[in-house]
Every structure is written in C-alpha cells, then in structure tokens.
Design goal:
The complex is a heterodimer.
Chain A (H helix, E strand, L loop, with lengths): L1 H14 L25 E3 L14 H5 L5 E5 L8 E7 L8 H5 L5 E3 L14 E2 L1 H4 L30
Antiparallel strand pairs in A: 1-4, 2-3, 3-5
Chain B lengths: L1 H34 L15 H10 L11 H18 L18 H22 L3 H32 L4 H6 L11 H14 L11 H4 L9 H26 L10 H22 L5 H29 L1
Helix pairs in contact in B: 1-9, 1-10, 3-4, 3-9, 4-5, 5-7, 5-11, 7-9, 9-10
Classes of the chains: A alpha+beta, B mainly alpha.
C-alpha cells in the first residue's frame, strides 16, 4: 500500500536526524588521501640526485588532453629535457603519463590544492615540477641498470 | 489614528512573515542536510543563520532579465500575484487571541480558500507569459493540479465548519477548547493536509516545477528577484498552510502553560518541519497518478467524511 510505505519512508528519513553526518569540513578538516591518490604531477630525481626524465616524450604522447610539452636539450650526451611544461588547467589527472614513463620520472602525488587566480599560473615549468627526492620509487636508477654491474660469481653465494 | 496603527501593524506582520519565509530557505536546507546525513549551509554567520543575507545580496545583484519573447506585462505581474495572494491570505490567520491582521472576519475560511485559488493565476500566468514549452507545461500542470485538489480541500474543511458552526477562524479556534478537531475530523485533517501540500506545490506534489522533467517548470524563464518572489511565495505558502492546519485542526494558539503566541509558533514550526521531511522522503508521483489520487480517492473520501460528519451531528 502506497500510504504505508510513504509513512515508513518518512519515519526512516526522520531517524537520519540522529545519524552522524558524512560531511568533512574541508579547509579545517583535511581529507585522508591514499599515497596512490592522483593529484599534482611532479618530476623526480634518481637516488644520485640526477633528473630521471630522459625526454622520451612517451608521457606527452599518451596524454589524452595534450597538456604536457617538453623538449630535449641539444647536447648529445645530455638526455635531460631543456624545458618541461604541464598545463594544469587542461590536465585531467588520469595518471597515464606516470604509467607510460619508462624511468619513473613523472609521478602523481596526493596534492589537489592547485587553485590559482590566473590561468597562466597553472602552467608549471620544469623548475616548478622538479622535486629533490625520488618519489614513490626510491631505488630505481636509470643510469645504473642492474645489468651494468659486473656479474656476481655464484660460488661466492654458497655457504 | 487606530486605522493607521492597524495598517502599520499589518505591514509589520506581513514583513515578519516575508522574513520568516526567507529564513525558511535556510531552515529547509539545514534540515534536508541533516536528513541526508549532510550538514547543509553552516558557513555564513553562526551555524549559517546569515545564509539568507548572502542569498539576498546575490539574488538582488543578478540580472533581472525579461525574455524578449515573453508577454511582458503578465510576466512581471505573475510573481507579484503569487506573493500578494499568499500574503493576503495571512490576514485572516489568528496568531493569538488578540493578534490578527483582520480579526473577526466572518468569512475568514472562505477568504483563505479564495486567495489560494487566486494564487493559481500567478503560476499559470507565469507559465503562459514565459512563452516557453517547459513553462507552459508547468503552468498547465499547476492549473490542473490546483483545480482538482482545491475541490476536496474545500470539502474537507466543511467538516470543521460544520462542527464549529462558523467560517470565522477565531470562532473555529475557540470551538476547539475541549477537543482539537483533529480527533473528530482525522480523515478531514489528512485530506486537508494533502490538499495543502498540493496547494503549496511542495514535494511530493511539485509537478508544476518538476525540476528533472521541466527544468523548473513555470519559473524556468525567471531570474533575479522575480524568481526570488516565487521562491519566497512558496515558503510563505508553506507557512500559510501550516498555520491553517494548526488553526483548523490543532487548536490554533490554545495550549497549557506557555503563552498562546508561542504555542501557535511551536505547532506551526512542527508542521513546517513535516513539510520539509516530506520533501526529504517522498518521490514525486506521475502526473496521471496525481490526478487519479485526487479525483478517484481523495474526492470520494472527502464526500464520505462530509456525509459521516453530518450523520454524526444529526444523530447527536
């Protein structure tokens, strides 16, 4: 009967007056973000402090909204990018760049507070993106691959 | 001199009602929030009490746009009609034994029914003058809904009039000294409440607005304070219907210990909260369902109520 179910609905809704609210009072009460949260994009360095990015353009190629722009330096042995630019007013924080990156250079971190007063200040240059640490991949070093180390003598592993 | 005082009092009372209606926007949003496990607006002022000031500032600074394709005179008049009829109906509501804008009007209840019927014109004219299909559909729905629910609203109230022997609301309130009319007229009360909800076009009977089918229905094309007047008019309508339910069925300002004005306020706020609870809880029926409830269920029930009340009165 419609009337009974309507009355029951009203009563159950009324009881919600005594439930705890789900709202988080954001600026005062910060939300808990997981380490994997996809927020602001950073460029990391390897354990030796070198820039990890080797200007392979895979992140720019995979980016669905074309918000990444970069160029390699002209020097033959220097693989670092001359400039590296991310337009956060276009970025959709999908994390494809992080998945595509072969050297763990580009990473998304749990920071979403990117508000700015002008759109141009949402374009981050390399100096804004680079951090001094290694990010989520603390040991990886592109310039010291495991294969480059001399092979261990297996006998030395025996007891 | 006394006439001037009376007019000043009436203006003060009406302004109070408008401010109360505006404040209800905040009350509704807060209560809806709590019933949906949210907080609602709580930033402006203590617990968000000044939200209405912020909303007012915002709505006054919005562009007050009259569409070029609209029927200008009617378009401007429609919100005023809604507002004016609702406020006029307040004239006969007895707030306390002595306080009422037009005390001892011996056709008080008829005046209320007439004014609520007139307020349909505001909605229908708004829908017509907007010259847009959503608005027109909303206006048409409003016309059909109001007409069919007006019928049994009048019939449901007649039970009270028969018991009290008067159309004067003060007399009706005084007649409930021993026993509230909700006891002998419980069916009439339910019918009047349902008709009242439909009359104030509140959920679940807000088909004239129907925001997910019609945009905003009859006020789709309205902006700025004209929209604000529809909005405040709707909330004033809630207060009006609640006040009428209290005056007709719940003994008006009568109650033990507390002063009569406070009793009236408490009872009215309980019904306002009930109106908001309905909005939080119930979905909107389909248009044909609304019509068939009105004509096939409510109308026979109200006639039955009328006949039963008459039979009991004759037997007693």
């Amino acid at each position: 009967m419609y009337i009974m179910s309507a009355l029951r609905t009203c009563w159950l809704t009324f009881l919600h007056l005594f439930h705890r609210t789900e709202t988080q009072q954001y600026p005062e009460q910060k939300p808990k973000l997981s380490p994997r949260y996809r927020g602001r994009i950073v460029l990391t360095r390897d354990p030796d402090g070198r820039e990890r990015c080797v200007s392979c353009h895979l992140c720019a190629a995979v980016c669905p909204c074309d918000c990444i722009d970069l160029q390699k330096t002209a020097a033959p042995d220097d693989w670092r990018p001359e400039y590296f630019r991310i337009n956060f007013s276009r970025c959709i924080f999908c994390g494809f760049c992080e998945e595509a990156c072969p050297t763990s250079a580009i990473q998304l971190i749990p920071d979403f507070e990117l508000a700015e007063y002008s759109r141009t200040s949402l374009v981050y240059e390399k100096e804004h993106l680079l951090i001094s640490g290694t990010g989520k991949d603390p040991h990886y070093n592109f310039f010291k691959p495991a294969a480059a180390a001399p092979p261990k003598n297996p006998r030395s592993l025996l007891p | 001199m006394s006439a001037a005082l009376g007019i000043a009092g009436a203006i003060a009372l009406l302004l109070g009602i408008v401010i109360l209606a505006a404040l209800l926007t905040w009350v509704e949003r807060r209560l809806l929030g709590f019933w949906q496990d949210r907080l609602g607006p709580n930033r402006v002022g203590w617990q968000g009490t000044l939200q209405i000031v912020a909303d007012m500032v915002k709505i006054f600074f919005k562009e007050d746009w009259v569409p070029a394709f609209s029927d200008r005179a009617l378009f401007v008049a429609a919100p005023a009609i809604v507002m004016a009829t609702v406020l006029l109906a307040f004239a006969v509501v007895p707030l306390t034994p002595s306080l009422s804008i037009a005390p001892d009007v011996n056709i008080g209840l008829l005046f209320f029914l007439a004014m609520t019927s007139l307020s349909v014109y505001g909605v229908v004219l708004a829908g017509w003058a907007s010259h847009s299909k959503f608005s027109l559909l909303g206006g048409m729905r409003a016309a059909a809904q109001m007409m069919s629910y007006e019928v049994f609203m009048g019939l449901a109230v007649i039970g009270v009039v028969m018991l009290a022997g008067s159309f004067d609301l003060n007399t009706i309130v005084l007649a409930q000294k021993k026993c509230w009319f909700v006891v002998p007229q419980c069916l009439g009360f339910v019918l009047f409440l349902i008709a009242g909800i439909a009359e104030a076009h509140r959920l679940p009977f807000d088909l004239p607005e129907g925001e997910n089918e019609l945009g905003a229905g009859f006020h789709t094309e309205y902006s700025g304070m004209k929209f604000g007047m529809f909005f405040v008019g709707e909330y004033a309508g809630i207060v009006l219907i609640s006040a009428m339910v209290v005056a007709l069925y719940f003994g008006g300002w009568q109650g033990p210990l507390l002063p009569p004005g406070l009793w009236f306020g408490l009872k009215v706020s309980a019904f306002i909260a009930f109106f908001i609870l309905l909005r939080a809880a119930l979905p909107r029926p389909r248009y044909d369902q609304l019509m068939s409830y009105g004509w096939k269920l409510m109308l026979p029930l109200s006639v039955l109520n009328l006949a039963a009340t008459g039979a009991v009165m004759l037997a007693a």
